[in-house]
Amino acid sequence: MLDPAAVGAYFLTVSLVAFFSSFAQLGLTSAVVRLVAESIATGKLARVGLTIRIVLRLGCGSGLVLAAVVAAGLGQWLAFRVFQSPLLGGISGLLALWIFVRTMQGLFVEIFRGFHDIRLASLFGEFLTSILCAIAFGVLWAARGQADLTQIVFLSVAAGATSTVLAALILRRRVVGTHDDRSISVAGILRIAWPLWVTNLVFFVVRQSDILIVGALLSQTDVALYGAASRMIKLTSLALVIVNAVLPPIIAELYVTGETRRLERITRTVATLACIPAVVVLAAFLI
Questions:
Q1: Whose CA is closest to 24, among 238, 204, 249, 280?
Q2: Using an 8 Å Cβ cutoff, are 2 and 148 in contact?
């Protein structure tokens, strides 16, 4: 639906949203999984509601501040000075909005994961957003046969916002009536979150900064080709995506209850099983 230059700008937009939303989440996504799972495992249910409210308020404030910075000029500077992409510069406002939506969406997803509700965590993570985008893109394709970058990004933001609002409504019913527990505080949560925040940012640089480097050095058409190839190669890590969705709350619960032998056995088994489909997909590509 897009010409190669617009596809390249789209891949850059997705990567920038992923980076800035990870930055705005302050490590709270990993922290809230641990805190909610630990509280449930140890029977400290009273502090679950307060933990969730603190995490959401911190994430909302951080997301709004970073989105405002991007909209105020950082987005334009990156578009024209770093990536030499007028197309990217034309959607800096939508980029800022998408960052905020993605920040909040990630927090809701990890809260559900802390509750061991992998079904809802998966639904409101990428699945529902992808389904809504596919439907919207399909309708647009059938009606017009083509689109511009602004339309595609707007539909992506709308799909993410819809998923986030639905997640918020469901979570509100789940935590209603949960009493505050002053054993947890903002400072305490941030103390847990900041090392995880650093780890998440380093992980992003190691795993996902390639498209940004390509965008800064090569043409938008080359970015489009590289981004498409990168998306295909991610099929080899599909099993790992499933593992990362299921394992974190199990680790938190077994660790806090002292079941280290069982934890070791589960992680070893899962790591081994996750390699098998990856090897199969890789072999298919090679053949």
A1: 204
A2: yes
Contacts of 203 (CB under 8 A, 6+ apart): none
Q: What is the pLDDT of residue 182?
A: 64
Tell me the pLDDT tens digit for each residue of 28-65. 988 888 888 888 877 777 778 888 888 999 999 999 99
Rounded to whole angstroms, how far apart are CA atoms 109 and 180? 22
Lowest mean pLDDT: which of 45-49, 125-129, 255-259, 267-271? 45-49
Alpha helices by DSSP H, listed for the chain, are 4-24, 28-41, 46-69, 75-77, 86-89, 92-114, 118-122, 128-144, 149-175, 186-208, 210-217, 220-233, 238-256, 260-286
Taking a C-beta distance cutoff of 8 angstroms, is the pair 47, 181 a contact?
yes
